[in-house]
Specification:
single chain; 3-stranded antiparallel sheet
């Protein structure tokens, strides 16, 4: 009886293997048939995109872009200024050519010459603009 049971088991296994092989062959046939059938949908990645054509009217819509660098403002002009505390002592304020805000105190009757950006000198006494400087 054990011998018969073992033989039956071996026969069932080989039958199952044959059925499996047959089903794989059928899957391959169906897959090949489906690949040729246009009614079956394909993944989007496998579908070819239609060719794009451009008309002359499309070209006229293209805008030209200006890629030039924006103009850089020239550095501010600097001049020498004669500052004077002729009547009373006082503080004068100005911006150096390097862009540093500066103050300078002068005693009564004293004068000084400073190189400053144009239009930045102010203070409590007469200010006289001179020649350009660095």
């Amino acid at each position: 009886m054990k011998k018969n049971l073992l033989a039956l088991l071996v026969m069932l296994c080989s039958f199952a293997g044959a059925i499996h092989a047959q089903s794989l062959a059928n899957v391959a046939k169906v897959t090949n048939a489906n690949a040729a059938d246009s009614r079956i949908s394909k993944p989007a990645a496998l579908v070819e995109a239609p060719a794009v054509t451009f008309a002359a009217a499309d070209v006229s819509k293209v805008k030209e872009v200006d890629n030039t660098a924006p103009a850089v403002a020239p550095p501010p002009a600097c001049y020498s200024y004669l500052i004077s505390a002729a009547f009373t002592g006082g503080t004068f304020y100005y911006t150096t050519c390097g862009g540093i805000a500066t103050s300078q105190y002068l005693d009564k009757g004293k004068t000084a010459t400073v190189c400053a950006r144009e239009g930045t000198v102010s203070g409590s006494g007469p200010i006289t603009k001179g020649a350009t400087c660095n």
